[in-house]
Amino acid sequence: MKNRIKLELRRNPISFIFFFIGFAIIVFVVGTLFNMLYKQLIVSPAYFIAILKDQYVLKSIGLTLYASFLATILAVIFGIPLAYAIARNEFYGKNIIESIIDIPVIIPHTVAGIALFSLLSRRGTVGSIFGNLGIVFQDSLWGVVIAMFFVSYPLFVNSAKDGFVSVNPNFERVARTLGASQWKAFYQIALPLSYPHLISGAIMSWARGISEFGAVVVIAYYPMIASTLIFYRFNTGGLKESQPIAVLLILLCFITFLFLRLISRKKG
Amino acid sequence: MNKRKTYIKISALFLIGIMVALTAGCTGQTDTGQKTVLKVLIAGSLTSPMEKVEAKFEADHKNVDVQLEPAGSLECIKKITELGTQADVLASADYTLIPAMMMPNYADWYILFAKNEMVLTYSDKSKYASIVNENNWYKILDKPDVVWAFSNPNLDPCGYRTPMTIQLAEFEYEDDQIFEKLISSKSKITINEVNGTYVITTPEDLAPDTSKITIRNKSVELVSMVQEGGIDYAWEYISVAIQNDLKYVRLPGSINLSDVGYEKIYKKVQVKTTDGKTQTAKPIVYGITVPKNAPNAALANEFVKYVIDENGQKIFNEDGQPPVVPAKANDKTKLPQILQQYAADN
Description:
The structure holds two protein chains of two kinds. By secondary structure, chain A is mainly α. Helices cover about 85% and strands about 0% of the residues of chain A. In chain A, helix 3 crosses helix 14 and helix 5 packs across helix 8. In chain B, about 35% of the residues lie in helices and about 25% in strands. In chain B, helix 2 links the parallel strand 1 and strand 2. Chains A and B meet through helix 6 and helix 13 of A and helix 1, helix 3, strand 9 and helix 8 of B.
């Protein structure tokens, strides 16, 4: 597989040109981040090392990864059926449903946060019902999760939808004619074949949740997630105290995502 | 089918684009092509009157686009001193931040131009809204079913003024349990008395009991939460309460940090924030300056004039932010020529 791509690159000059032009994006990202990483890790590592020992920072980064993970699980649980239903059916108003799914991507995050707050706060219409069940969103882990979920699920749903669309429905039909139940056709044919899309959607959704600030900070200032803490430290201690946290978060996320992509590629 | 969908999506986006362009066109915000941009960093609580000053200034200077950037006062100043933002005007909710953080490197003069006071805001939806008043507010905040809020003392002056006010209430109401009941038993904020001075310490992890106390970065963020009924009471400046039509309890002059007559009593309370600084309670006075590295200093000076002249005073009065009349300068000899006649020495 790899060799074939190399050969193609050699034979096909347009690939070279495209690769060259596209590389500008990589340079842009690496340049931006490298500047920060270099300053932090090479020029003044003392602050970075101090951060590694700061329990509050570590806890907050752990919380961020964990909460976004929970948000992604929610996105997977609710997103797979939604994506499958949309991919396999044509119905009146499908465009509207698809546009609704995309809404969280469009609206400003603070607005999303306020909307969530008014619905889910202790006194909110839905929040008070959950409150009776012992689930509180205002300034709690669940508030963080729900805000992350709100902004990140479209990435998963859209990717999953693309995945299911890419699987030829005839495969499932053939399985059905061979006696498989509808459910079996779904989880033995459609699900495994769209696996790469699902994984990549889940990774993007998780990443999106980790990066969220605006929506989370309205409904759940506490417990402090990394982006809230970075914003806070920037305001109290300036760049020198906020940047090391950002660098640590970037490194952790980069390693995790690289790892996940490697695993998923092997399986896919 | 897919093609059709794409068309529909593209035309929908197009429509939205047109709508956005139209709205922006009506408010005249997008047309910055040839205009000089005047960047004005302001304390969040100044947003409303500053918008009115902005409108007046832009009406008189057609080629200038004033861009207000409201944020916490500390944040505004740090943008200049840490991020290297080139701002034309800076207005802080606590004038002392200018000499403490900007002078002498980033500013060499400032003007005191407006005052404010601490109030306890609420809405019709708030618990005990019908009975709360200036004598019982601290008992109501302590009721188990009441949720109240203030902004982060380490980020927002309104935030560190809240525990100050609550401590001052102990003197006014002659009840030495108020601070303990409202603050220290429900968070990691502590208080120590040393020779008659009360030093409040606000750690980074405030660890509030979130079923009772809500904390956010800036006090203005709490406004919509009070309006939505998510919290019952929030500590704000009176200007914010008036601009947002919130109900509020007006507190005695000895605790609301607005009365210069009580300066000696205020001074007994201090707050030590996480940046290592100690804030001493004092009357709330706003300060404005033009940073030394302002790209458009002449225009910036003129904008300051618009804030402190008679018309500016009128705007601030109407927004519940009593102006300092006449405005006072730290050192009149350092003021730009154009501002000399509008300010007196402090």
